[in-house]
Structures are given as structure tokens and as C-alpha cells.
Amino acid sequence: MTPPRLPRWLLRLAAPPEDRAAIVGAFDEEFHQRADSGRAAAAWYWRHATLSIASVLRLRWRRSAPLADLGGDVRYALRTIRSSSQGTGRDSTTKRAAGVRIFCG
Q1: Which pLDDT band, with edges at 50, 70 and 90, does 105 fall under?
Q2: CA dihedral defined by 72, 74, 79, 85, rounded to 10 degrees?
Q3: Mean pLDDT, the chain, whole residue set
Q4: pTM, two decimal places
Q5: Which of 12, 27, 48, 87 is the most buried (most CB within 10 A)?
Q6: Are 15 and 23 in contact (CB under 8 A)?
Q7: What is the residue-wise DSSP string for the chain?
């Protein structure tokens, strides 16, 4: 018994390319486990595939958004600037000089 073609095709169409095989494969595997129930397995596939299309499209949109993690990038840049600017004061220069003196003898 094979999964219903139309919901499988819609799921493949909606899924991101990098996750397509895993998503459709999970649905197919569950279908084959339920296949002994016949029409109930096909009804399950239709119901869950159509309910999952919105989530799969949302996943696809999040992955393709070019500025999806802009906030995280800005926070990382600010943390990097802040940590590098903390080591440029007079106090840190004195500590570095003391460290060089101890190390060099």
C-alpha cells in the first residue's frame, strides 16, 4: 500500500529542500506502520499532512529569511565590542606591563 499521492506531493512541495526527505520519510514510515488498517491509514495521512503544511511552510520561511537572526547578530557584535573595549584602559595596560615584567624576569 502506498501513501496518498496528493497530500504527499503537497508536503514535498511545502517542505524546505534540506528537510524534505526527513519530513516526507517520517510521514511515509508512519503510514506504513498503519497500513494494515487500510483506509484509516490513508485518512490519517491526509489529515496529518494537511495539518502540517502550515508548520512546514513556516519552517521554510524562517530558514529562507535573509535577516532572520539580525537581532542575535547585533547582540553578538555589541558583546564583542564591549569585551574588547574593556581591555583598552590604563588599568589593563598596567596589568599587561606587570605580566610582561613577571614573565621576562
Answers
A1: very low
A2: 170
A3: 82
A4: 0.59
A5: 27
A6: yes
A7: ----HHHHHHHHHHS-TTTHHHHHHHHHHHHHHHGGGTHHHHHHHHHHHHHHHHHHHHHHHHHH-TTTTHHHHHHHHHHHHHHHHTTSSHHHHHHHHHHHHHHH-
